[in-house]
Amino acid sequence: MSSQRAVDSLSLSELKQAFEAAASAYEELKGKGLSFDLTRGKPAAEQLDLSNDLLNLPAGDFRSANGTDVRNYGGLTGLLELREIFAELLNVEVDNLIALGNSSLEVMHDLVVYSLLYGTPDSARPWSKEAEIKVLTPVPGYDRHFAICESFGITMIPVPLLEDGPDLDVVRKLVAEDPAIKGIWCVPTYSNPTGTIYSEEVTRELVSMTTAASDFRIIWDNAYAVHTLVEEAPKAHDIVAFAREAGNPNRPLAVASTSKITFAGAGVAFLAASDVNQQWFQKHMSKRSIGPDKVNQLRHVKFFGDAEGVRRHMAKHRDILKPKFDALLEILENRLGGLDVANWTKPEGGYFVSLDVVPGTAQRVVQLAKEAGISLTAAGSAFPLGNDPDNTNIRLAPSFPTLAEVKDAMDGVATCVLYAAYEHALAGK
Amino acid sequence: MSSQRAVDSLSLSELKQAFEAAASAYEELKGKGLSFDLTRGKPAAEQLDLSNDLLNLPAGDFRSANGTDVRNYGGLTGLLELREIFAELLNVEVDNLIALGNSSLEVMHDLVVYSLLYGTPDSARPWSKEAEIKVLTPVPGYDRHFAICESFGITMIPVPLLEDGPDLDVVRKLVAEDPAIKGIWCVPTYSNPTGTIYSEEVTRELVSMTTAASDFRIIWDNAYAVHTLVEEAPKAHDIVAFAREAGNPNRPLAVASTSKITFAGAGVAFLAASDVNQQWFQKHMSKRSIGPDKVNQLRHVKFFGDAEGVRRHMAKHRDILKPKFDALLEILENRLGGLDVANWTKPEGGYFVSLDVVPGTAQRVVQLAKEAGISLTAAGSAFPLGNDPDNTNIRLAPSFPTLAEVKDAMDGVATCVLYAAYEHALAGK
């Protein structure tokens, strides 16, 4: 590149020169006719292959450990032996954990629906009877959480996500004052998209803090609990026990799934919660379902064997994912390091890198990338209603493309970031 | 028995004698220490065995016909090749049919939830914003339909179920007058529990009749469309097309599933509806799910092959079920025929026989049976809120027990019916 100096330190002529170089690089990029997709946290085919034994399981067997015929109706709580495996991994008591259908998004959606239509066990009335319902959304965050709230007309209040979880000074003040604030969305391990790991201190404070709403809920989406890029995932916080110890047993509703462990569309989901919350959930769920797919649960039990089997399996995912994350980060560092045009997270797990480009240019970068054949998640998608007030954040998802594609795509993204940065700086002169 | 004469024709002393004989038979029954369960429409293990090939499928394959990797996220409408098989069986256009998760109860529940929280495409506002919502429930009917309504505070208005469907004179008048009546629950083929088959005339009238509510909906639960006990199931009415022809395209919401075709807890469900309804459902479903379990859908495609494969498979179910229904009906006829103590349906398909005992004695019969070790569905369960005004109806479900158990259990049930009938007649003297 024309410069390894920070963009702000350039004279106007140097800036013009840098822009010309970036524009020329971008034209070259467009000429390549690329077609890459970095939009969603989808596992690559190579990762899905790791679970292909599931395509022949349960290999004629149809009995759970206690003799239940999994082919027939019944059993709202799922197979005990599967709950035991994930109770260990999620670090919750097995009595507080149930195994459900093929997506934790469904569970979270239904938790909100039941709260709206029935109210929680601690609600004076169904949430839908309140004049307004609000929830806190640490940002950047997960767009599908926001979509649920948006669809039901729930007001979202963004709160900053710090190194160890949401900014508690902000959170504490808001929840203490406003009884309309009924909850907070959290992704406690390798947050989407920042890779943040919630500390035990933050976790304990979230279940302990005083809330004006008696029915305040933490939706604890532990989607990436075991999805480490390093040797070992952090031990999950037993938020259900923490909450019980803090005297707010019903506050957390924790979910997880095997979507990114086995098959993204054919896994098993989990709900961990207090006894009271479990009774509440299962009572309402029983109107909807005679029980989850127990054959698929047995399939997963046979595939994993035990919790250590899941950890071994996740190490294979890591071996596929880590080179892609390394390449992504290396390209960002090589192409953008020291130029003061971007910051990015360096996650130790999960599926994403959160990239902050020059404020005011995120949409432009995504547009430029799109025109060059590189699909990125829409700018702002990690914010409620897609509204990133600084127009700075872009979520990068390197899992689905091949390693070679990640390299080519990210090199292209870096070109777009530079182009937009110099263009923006020039416009400001 | 002491008499083959109708109970009303007996003198007091004859009645006393009949009662003594029945009481003695009942004491003998209790002494047998039976333990039978005729409560639910569960497939027997022998029926589930018919689908055991599913326990090894999709045998390593993971591509749908159009090349989609079924292991990964995506695809709200389900696999086209599975939709094609069931479009033929359900006699709807494939474009109007989508394949979903493992239970049509879930689909029906969510249809109601979306109507409550969002309103239908034809609603002025979400149903939950109305002062009162009412639905028509043909009786006797399916208790899980009623449980959904009860849980959401929806008022149920029972209407009589005749030989060819709901009593349209009653239905027409109600729906024409009351805009709060938003729908009707129908089981058009081999109704639960009566075995009723809706005629084309009734079906066409249901989609044509004038309704005060612009957003009136028919939940068309075609759970038993292919579950015939005779040579061939009746051809399904294409209610989606009928409704379009009648100018009320969005009125029907039709569902079905493979729960009683393959595995009761691990099947595939379907929704047939107009384009507008499909867009509406999928829009709201997309907040809840990234897509149904496509691996299980592929598993079913490979297992069935085509619609004829489903029909062949259902013939095997019939061969297992028919002897149980025949035995049940034969015992009722032999033990209760001509005594004027009971009437019952003689279904050509489905999972149930609807038994009407002497009015005022259904609860007593169920209690007597229970004390003799025979579990029957709770009296009144085929009525909204469990309230059978005549205390006469009992749903019999002969599928789960073995043939020998059905015979012993039904002989016991007949004893209980007689005992309660004579006891009741004596009390009235």
Automatic annotation (TrEMBL), chains A, B:
Keywords for the protein's UniProt record, in alphabetical order: Aminotransferase, Transferase
A GO term for molecular function: transaminase activity
Entry annotated with the keyword Transferase: yes
Name of the protein in question: Aminotransferase class I/II-fold pyridoxal phosphate-dependent enzyme
Annotated source species: Populibacterium corticicola
